[in-house]
Design a protein that fits this description.
The complex is a heterodimer of chains A (145) and B (413).
Chain A (H helix, E strand, L loop, with lengths): L3 H13 L4 H13 L22 E7 L7 E7 L2 H14 L4 H6 L2 H7 L14 H19 L1
Antiparallel strand pairs in A: 1-2
Chain B lengths: L12 H5 L8 E2 L2 E2 L1 E2 L10 H12 L11 H21 L7 E4 L2 H11 L9 E5 L8 H10 L2 E5 L9 H6 L5 E7 L11 H10 L4 E4 L11 H4 L3 E5 L10 E5 L1 H6 L10 E4 L4 E3 L13 H15 L3 H20 L4 E4 L8 E6 L4 H10 L2 E2 L1 E3 L4 H6 L5 E5 L6 H18 L1
Parallel strand pairs in B: 3-15, 5-6, 5-7, 7-8, 8-9
Antiparallel strand pairs in B: 1-2, 4-10, 9-10, 11-12, 13-14, 14-17, 16-17
Helix pairs in contact in B: 2-10, 3-10, 4-5, 11-14, 12-14
Classes of the chains: A mainly alpha (145), B alpha/beta (413).
């Protein structure tokens, strides 16, 4: 399994191949298109992530990759946000819960040229999504003890 | 549009724009194309200077001190009230209550006028109100059992006046409607709305947040009972707005908030209130913001407002023509009598995606439900993009916007 640092480096390398912001956004949208779709029934209130201007859903499940590890699936009605979810999932999926809690995605988004999604404006959802992922990880870590 | 004044006619958009220091800045090395003035307008030098002057040169609390600066500040503050009265053609400055904005002005009426309403009394409002002209009335529904009667909106974004005529009953106590939609830019027929209500003996509140920006308002010609405006959309500071009300209403309805300045005398067992407008202005008011608003209106009075309106119309027309070439793009609100506020849905592209990408091209627009969810539901659009122009926008801005939108479309669709 790739370590968190490897995952970050892979993302940074991929984004470095892209020439300008238009290319970066096209790529983000492309990553979003490749997300595994959520079931209709998973687009419900219990999976809704609040604090994003567009609608976001996140599903967390235990992963076989490591004890306490989680696998996430997610969706949004906005293309860019769906791409951001895809990036978050590449960072966090199958990581052990304590590593999820340690990984701060802000530096990653800055390094791949998407720092504008980190502002505290409510309309930007990365913060809310990260909080939700870490909350799920916190719960998983607790129940693993 | 007849405004008799000796003002210089010959509106020059670039000269007008040059009065706004903010346009010196760039967004990601691109000149700022600000198409979000319906949310809040940028500020001209005249307003910035007035606000600075108030703090640098002459500041004190108003209506309290007897010293020189207290007198000067009170003069400036009350001068601003007189400017608002002149701007709206109110009979007197005593008809003008300073508020934090339109929202507070409407909440004031809902609270003070609304206190007289009983369960089963009815309020008529339209489907295209801003939430600030919806939620205060929901309070009355929740707390007092007041009934809200909704007037639908036509396919092109006008108030359905036939349905309006039918909405009245012998329990109707108030009509509260927008004078211009913040989503569609549609001008409503204020005079007709008022006269039809007055025929039934019902008073009317008009929400002038947008209409005061894009044309002349004459509250006496409208014969309207309450008219609410906000400063920050008319090139003034945030945190200040005004409620115009007829004297008979202001004298009758109870105070809104209690505190200093709104009283004549206070005893242990009773209070004698001050006369309006002081009765409705508890506590230290937003003095500096009010002075800034006065400066904005005074400055606006030196501008060619008919020329501004014609320029805004040209911006609107050019944008509508440009958008018509986009396949699968739907403009919400296509009525003829429309100001330079354009809301649209572009195919399956999410409005937030479009707005974020437009921002990358230096174009600032609004995306979302525009604080008008009932209207968005009416048009089956959970989220849409709004481009809104003020007189400082140029034809080049329209070009930049349309070019950027074409690129955004290429990325998203």
């Amino acid at each position: 399994m790739m370590t968190a640092q490897d995952r970050i480096q892979t993302l940074v390398d991929e984004f470095e191949l892209l020439d300008d912001w238009e290319e970066r956004y096209r790529y983000v949208i492309e990553l979003g298109r490749e997300l595994e779709p959520l079931a209709e029934s998973e687009h419900d209130e219990s999976h809704r992530v609040h604090g994003c201007a567009s609608q976001v859903w996140l599903v967390a499940e235990p992963s076989g990759a490591a004890p306490g590890a989680l696998k996430f699936r997610g969706d949004s009605d906005a293309h860019i946000v769906r791409g951001l979810i895809a990036i978050l999932l590449r960072l966090y999926n199958d990581l052990p819960a304590e590593q999820i809690l340690d990984l701060d995605p802000r530096a990653v988004f800055t390094r791949i040229g998407l720092s504008e999604h980190l502002s505290s404006q409510r309309s930007n959802g990365v913060k809310a999504m990260t909080r939700r992922i870490q909350k799920e990880a916190g719960a998983a870590a607790e129940s693993a003890v | 549009m007849s405004m008799t004044s000796g003002k210089e006619k010959n509106f020059d958009p670039l000269a007008f724009k040059s009065e706004f220091p903010i346009f010196e800045r760039t967004i990601r090395d691109k000149p700022l194309v600000y198409l979000d003035s319906a949310a809040s307008a940028q500020k001209p030098r005249a307003v910035i200077d007035a606000v600075t002057q108030a703090m640098e040169h002459s500041f004190a609390n108003v209506h309290r001190g007897l010293h020189t600066m207290a007198n000067e500040t009170t003069e400036a503050f009350e001068g601003a009230r007189a400017e608002v009265a002149r701007f709206l053609n109110a009979p007197s400055a005593d008809n003008i209550v300073f508020t934090r904005g339109t929202t507070e002005a409407i909440n004031l009426v809902a609270s003070s006028f609304g206190a007289e309403l009983e369960a089963g009394d009815e309020i008529i409002l339209s489907q295209m109100e801003h939430h600030s002209n919806i939620v205060p009335w929901h309070f009355l529904r929740e707390r007092q059992g007041v009934v809200l009667k909704w007037v639908p909106v036509t396919e092109d974004g006008r108030i359905d006046m036939d349905a309006y005529a039918e909405a009245f009953s012998d329990r109707t106590k108030l009509v509260t409607m927008t004078h211009m939609s913040n989503v569609t830019g549609t001008r409503t027929d204020g005079e007709k709305i008022v006269s039809m209500a007055h025929d039934k003996g019902v008073p009317v509140l008009l929400d002038g947040s947008q209409s005061a920006v894009h044309g002349h308002v004459d509250v006496q010609a409208l014969d309207v009972d309450f008219f609410a405006i906000t400063g920050h959309k008319i090139y003034g500071p945030t945190g200040i707005g005004a409620l115009y009300a007829k004297s008979e209403q202001l004298n009758r309805i109870r105070p809104y908030q209690g505190g200093g300045e709104m009283i004549a005398e206070v005893f242990e067992d009773r209070v004698v209130y001050a006369d309006a407008p002081a009765k409705f202005e508890a506590g230290t008011p937003p003095i500096i913001d009010a002075i800034g608003l006065g400066a904005a209106l005074k400055w606006l009075d030196t501008q060619d407002r008919d020329g501004m309106e014609a320029h805004e119309r040209a911006l609107l027309d050019k944008t509508m023509t440009g958008l018509a070439e986009f396949e699968d793009l739907r403009v919400i609100g296509t009525a003829q009598n429309k100001a330079s506020i354009i809301t649209f849905v572009m195919g399956k592209a999410h409005a937030h995606d479009a707005a974020q990408l437009l921002d990358r091209y230096g174009v600032a627009v609004r995306a979302g439900h525009h604080c008008a969810q009932p209207l968005m539901r009416r048009f089956d659009a959970s989220s849409s993009v709004r481009a809104s122009y003020a007189a400082y926008n140029t034809m080049d801005d329209v070009e930049t916007f349309l070019d950027a939108l074409r690129s955004v479309r290429g990325i998203l669709m």
